[in-house]
UniProtKB/TrEMBL annotation:
Pfam families linked: Response_reg, Trans_reg_C
Lineage: Bacteria, Bacillati, Actinomycetota, Actinomycetes, Streptosporangiales
Protein name: Transcriptional regulatory protein CutR
Domain OmpR/PhoB-type: residue ranges: 124-217
Gene Ontology cellular component annotations, sorted alphabetically: cytosol; protein-DNA complex
MF (Gene Ontology): phosphorelay response regulator activity; transcription cis-regulatory region binding
Gene: cutR
UniProt keyword DNA-binding, yes or no: yes
SUPFAM superfamilies in the record: CheY-like
Protein keywords: DNA-binding, Phosphoprotein
Record organism: Planotetraspora silvatica
DNA-binding interval(s): 124-217
Domain Response regulatory: 2-116
Coiled coil feature spans: none
BP terms from Gene Ontology: regulation of DNA-templated transcription
InterPro entries: CheY-like_superfamily, OmpR/PhoB-type_DNA-bd, Sig_transdc_resp-reg_receiver, WalR-like, WH-like_DNA-bd_sf
Amino acid sequence: MRVLVVEDERVLADAIATGLRREAMAVDVAYDGAAALEKTGYIDYDVIVLDRDLPKVHGDQVARELVTQRSGSRIIMLTAAGDVDDKVEGLELGADDYLAKPFAFMELVARVRALGRRSAPPLPPVLERAGIRLDPGKRLVARDGKEIALTKKEFAVLEELMRAEGAVVSQEDLLDKAWDEHIDPFTNVVRVTMMTLRKKLGEPQAIETVPGVGYRL
């Protein structure tokens, strides 16, 4: 899941981003509304965690712009004001959910995951291909009935390959979905992750390299 955290309190923004990354999400951060609109102009986010009281461009205007652009991103709005009128106003601006500060982090995680499921096209709860069974909800992978322990990045890469249903997935798409904007586009991290993933999946090899194009399962 690709998430954008928009929050002008840098300590809070970085803490939220770090926590979501630990939940195996790819997370970018913007510290003001102008930066948020710039990022959403070229990156398709599944979920945007949007503080309402932002400098440069107010959070309300960011929400309006995203609605005008018919963005497919789901928005969860954060604010220090938690009364009903504020919640209603935020939702009418185009937010999909609303969370008042202070909040429990695990509640934020649950809400982000719920919105992410709504932003994604319907998929079977369990993915199966080439004898591999991947359960996104339980974060379990097995091949021919034998459970396989994967790192978060290996799991994310395998999930993207299985979601493609036999289509080729480029390195750029894997970087976009499994990492975040700070990853070096010329890094060999995808190749290294693919090497360890293939080793763990065992024989016969399930992942095919399509030279100059990407990978296919």
